[in-house]
């Protein structure tokens, strides 16, 4: 794990000569020894578990010392004419039906690529969330507007117009509603399947405060992929997420979904660059695998505004590549890992579509992706 600026400052101070008779002398000496041991344990960075890879991964960049985005995080808008036209068509369709997308609300860096390719992630239940996670750009409200009862039908109409084979639905958290919006999500999935029985539907679901009945209602609605994000490692949950979310609660939701519907693909996502260590990332991946998660995505945390959680480290593309190898060796069916990968990133849809259709035909593909 890389040093934060606060830790770096401590190291500079501790490396200077301190008065020998200071009452803090022993504590300083102990801390110097601990920091030296940490340095020895983390450098050089040689990836990761035994046998995973022989590659040497470039170290992360301290985002406090160098706050500018590295070149691999700089994206361009859709460049060719067809992509621009598709982007505008999709945008106009969403506006006309008063639908929200997480692509816009969360300021996703991949919006140009996904919309230019005719893919969007529709956000249900409005654009205001009852929770205030420190990484998320979606606006927060204690009392959001009532649910739009026409939204499930409007979503089905929009998706039918787009002619898609795979759609991702996500939603805000609605702790103000008794079932957390589970019945609304389920009705949307059912409406989509009634209009297009062959359509594959993924839902990126809330945790419903851990209520199993709400999880059951969504996972039995006819969806194909149930996704719920743990977001970060266990230690950093209180720093990154709203107090009503939690590591154990998220794992329980994922486990419940897999228990109720074993044929449904379960999926989660982890952000990197918020101060986690390699060991913590690995443990989080193992915990997810242990509750039946089949698909995992890893991406770089990007700060939406100065009001949000600061980025601690810029993670290199080589490290993301290494986590992909690590995850595949652990046994995940699919691992999408890259600086700009997000939980609903379209790159994984092609594998998931193949996985689901072959599984339906009784010919599930091998455990690792191409």
UniProtKB/TrEMBL annotation:
Q: Region labeled Disordered — which residues?
A: 58-80
Enumerate the cofactors the protein uses. [4Fe-4S] cluster
Kindly list the places in or outside the cell where this protein is found, as annotated in its UniProt entry. Mitochondrion
Give the E.C. number(s): 2.8.1.8
Annotated GO biological process: protein lipoylation
Q: Which domain of life is it from?
A: Eukaryota
The UniProt keyword set, sorted, is: 4Fe-4S, Iron, Iron-sulfur, Metal-binding, Mitochondrion, S-adenosyl-L-methionine, Transferase
PANTHER family in UniProt? LIPOYL SYNTHASE, LIPOYL SYNTHASE, MITOCHONDRIAL
Tell me the protein's name.
Answer: Lipoyl synthase, mitochondrial
């Amino acid at each position: 794990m890389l040093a934060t600026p606060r830790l770096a400052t401590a190291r500079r101070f501790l490396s200077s000569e301190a008065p020998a008779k200071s009452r803090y002398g022993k504590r300083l000496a102990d801390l110097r020894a601990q920091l030296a041991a940490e340095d020895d344990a983390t450098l050089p960075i040689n990836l990761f578990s035994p046998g995973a890879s022989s590659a040497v991964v470039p170290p992360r960049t301290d985002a406090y010392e160098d706050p500018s985005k590295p070149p691999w995080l700089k994206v361009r808008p859709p460049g060719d004419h067809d992509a621009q036209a598709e982007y505008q068509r999709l945008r106009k369709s969403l506006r006309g039906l008063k639908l929200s997308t997480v692509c816009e609300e969360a300021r996703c860096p991949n919006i140009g690529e996904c919309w230019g390719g005719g893919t969007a992630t529709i956000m249900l239940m409005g654009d205001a969330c009852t929770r205030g996670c420190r990484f998320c750009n979606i606006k927060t409200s204690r009392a959001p507007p009532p649910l739009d009862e026409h939204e499930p039908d409007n979503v089905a109409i929009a998706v039918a117009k787009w002619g898609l084979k795979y759609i991702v639905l996500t939603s805000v958290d609605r702790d103000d509603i008794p079932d957390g919006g589970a019945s609304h999500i389920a009705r949307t999935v059912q409406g989509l399947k009634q209009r297009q029985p062959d359509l594959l539907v993924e839902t990126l679901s809330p945790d419903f405060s851990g209520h199993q009945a709400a999880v059951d209602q969504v996972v039995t609605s006819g969806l194909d992929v149930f996704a719920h994000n743990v977001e970060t490692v266990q230690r950093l949950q209180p720093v990154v997420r709203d107090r009503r979310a939690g590591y154990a609660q998220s794992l329980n939701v994922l486990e419940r979904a897999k228990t109720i519907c074993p044929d449904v693909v379960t999926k989660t996502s982890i952000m990197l660059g918020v101060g986690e260590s390699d060991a913590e990332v690995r443990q989080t991946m193992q915990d997810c695998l242990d509750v039946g998660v089949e698909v995992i995505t890893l991406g770089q945390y990007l700060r939406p505004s100065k009001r949000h959680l600061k980025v601690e480290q810029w993670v290199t593309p080589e490290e993301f590549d290494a986590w992909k190898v690590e995850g595949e060796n652990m046994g995940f069916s699919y691992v999408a890992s890259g600086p700009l990968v997000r939980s609903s990133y379209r790159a994984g849809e092609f594998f998931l579509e193949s996985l689901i259709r072959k599984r339906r035909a009784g010919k599930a593909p091998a455990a690792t992706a191409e």
